[in-house]
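User: When convenient, might I ask for sequence and structure tokens for a protein?

AI:
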Amino acid sequence: MKRTNLFAEILLPLVGSTLLFSCATTNIATEVKMELRNWRAESENVVNLSILLEDDGTEGCPVLLNENTLIFESKKNDNYDLWSIDPNKKGGIVQLTTYDGADRVPCPHPDGKKYIFLSDRSETGFYLGELGKATVISLVEAREPYVGLWASGDISPDGTTFLYVSGKFIWTYNFETKTKTQFIQGTQPKYSPDGKEIIFRKIAKEIGTNIVSTSIWLMNPDGSEQTEIISGDNNFTYYGASISPDGTKILYLKRKVILRAEKVDVYYPDIWICNIDGTDHIQITTNPLSDQEAVWLDNQTIVFCSDRPQSENYDDKKWDLWKAKLEL
């Protein structure tokens, strides 16, 4: 097991620790700095935008466990662990895991107490933890899908099935029978709040280690009736989709991609929203830096990760958790 190699590969796209992947990084970095100087906050479709957590860690992958508990990964003291915070107030974080390797990409259990996360403890895969308990249970091994595409799985609302990605396929794990089954090719699966649909991403085109075309799909829990909701192209890539608590909206990330001969320039993502049928797309955030890993708190409120500067200084940026009410 080579922890540093595996988790170094997931670091870049999950927390965006560098500006972008490209042979033309310097030119685009200058371009983004210029855009940032001209950027205006009123261009965003949010109200009551505020920092939920601001500290010296590198926060990422927030998920709502219950109405008073938001779980996320944070790199403090050069190590990734899981932490929690009350999303209704600022501060008061609690450390959940203390493993000296990497514990990342948490997934909430519908009972509001347990959670699943990715770790490289005895073997690389997904583990089950619970609030207030130090011990964790190994569930399933998992192989890295695409470079940098480790992402949290999802548990069915009735608590019987865990969706996760291993290799380039979505798999299911049955909690009762403890059996795992290869499902369909895809990544980033999430159940709808009522459990009647699954939203997921398909990879359409890759150049080297860069994914340059993706699309968002809906399907039934058994894999039937797959329907493309957000079509992929060579100008943008789409990911991180989830369905609103009332089942009417889709929250997703959109990232610009520019192909230059054999080079691929991949810009920072913004947060978007659309209807469940893929109509009426609205851009939520417009900051030239990265806004990503957005999750629903309720039908009008989201939490997301961003490295937008805390001052007019471009270099004064670090990864924090932000909270915003959508202006729809």
In short: The first helix runs from residue 3 to 15. The CA atoms of residues 57 and 193 lie 31 Å apart. The mean pLDDT is 84. Residues 3-326 form a domain with the Neuraminidase fold (CATH 2.120.10.30).
